[in-house]
Amino acid sequence: MASTACFVIVSKNDIPIYEAEVGSAPKREDQAYQHQFILHAALDVVQDLAWATNTMFLKSVDRFDDLVVSVYVTAGHTRFMLLHDSRSEDGIKSFFQEVHELYIKIFLNPLYLPGSRITSSHFDTKVRALARKYL
Amino acid sequence: MPPLTGPKSGDALFGSVERVNAELFTLTYGAIVRQLLTDLEEVEEVNKQLDQMGYNIGTRLVDEFLAKSNVSRCVDFKETADVIAKLGFKMFLGVTATVTNWDAEGTSCSFVLEDNPLVDFVELPDTCQGLQYCNVLSGVIRGALEMVSMKTEVTWVRDMLRGDDAYEMRVKLTKQVPEEYPYKDDD
């Protein structure tokens, strides 16, 4: 498992709707803010890249020191952004694909408003389990 | 006209009615609940409205059920409950319920649904904890039974959306209205 990993889902209106620090390293508050900052900065790159390719998985779009930002863009332009220091691209791809399936389930819930925060604890547990498995 | 034979089996009934895609059905129902929540704002009001909608559906549905299922008159409430669980649920929802927890007088029982096509994908958010998502079903049963001269009260006892292991509906027969010919002979 990666020592540092931060996973954020950004809605198409550029609002973060889900955040999770999934690395094994002990959590530090200032780092969490730094991760948010890096991911936020990467959004611009994603915006350009998303329309230049027809794949959903954009691989690594940005880097900061030894941290890499990998992004997956769904058809509805929701962005899954992962900040990580591991190198296994296959694992990250599988992670994104499985999170995408979970995300679709959340989306199909009639009581969930698209673009609102994902508060489901079930989703949170599953995402963390996937992170342990693939990252 | 088909020959009048005994009641059809649940599977035969299910096969004989028109069907729609399950996801379309689930999401349409979800959209209705969602819209009611937006319009009425109060969860309690939504429960009431769903029940009323179910009642209106039930009063019509019972006719279609009786027309297509060939069931004959039920001798008691126990038989009625069995018919609903084995044939009614199967015909319209594609699942069967089990009837349990009879009280001593045989006037109230529970329908237990292991599987409920209405609730695929649904997860109750914190803001609608009081919502009886499937209240339309209880309304349908109440309406259908009222049309065949049985007044009932239907309440939900267990709900998988609140973490229970199954769906359980309690049906209580409150009054059996005797059927009367509406006119006197000499009128």
UniProtKB/TrEMBL annotation, chain A:
Per the record, the domain of life is Eukaryota
A GO BP entry is: endoplasmic reticulum to Golgi vesicle-mediated transport
Output the CDD domains linked to this UniProt entry: TRAPPC2_sedlin
Quick one: a GO cellular component term?
Answer: cytoplasm
Q: Which SUPFAM superfamilies match?
A: SNARE-like (SSF64356)
Task: Please give the name of this protein.
Answer: Trafficking protein particle complex subunit
The scientific name of the source species is: Oryza glaberrima
- What phylogenetic lineage does the species belong to? Eukaryota, Viridiplantae, Streptophyta, Embryophyta, Tracheophyta
Primary gene name:
LOC127763655
Automatic annotation (TrEMBL), chain B:
Q: Which UniProt keywords apply?
A: Endoplasmic reticulum, ER-Golgi transport, Golgi apparatus, Transport
**Top-level taxon:** Eukaryota
Q: Does the keyword Cell membrane apply?
A: no
Subcellular location, principal:
endoplasmic reticulum
The record's section on InterPro entries has: Bet3, NO_sig/Golgi_transp_ligand-bd, TRAPP_component
Cell wall biogenesis/degradation as a keyword?
A: no
Annotated membrane-spanning segments are none
Recorded hits in SUPFAM superfamilies, A to Z, give: Ligand-binding domain in the NO signalling and Golgi transport
Q: Name one GO cellular component term.
A: endoplasmic reticulum
Q: Where in the cell is it found?
A: Endoplasmic reticulum; Golgi apparatus, cis-Golgi network
- What's any GO biological process attached to this entry? endoplasmic reticulum to Golgi vesicle-mediated transport
Q: Which family does it belong to?
A: Belongs to the TRAPP small subunits family. BET3 subfamily.
How does the record describe its quaternary structure? Homodimer.
Q: What is this protein called?
A: Trafficking protein particle complex subunit
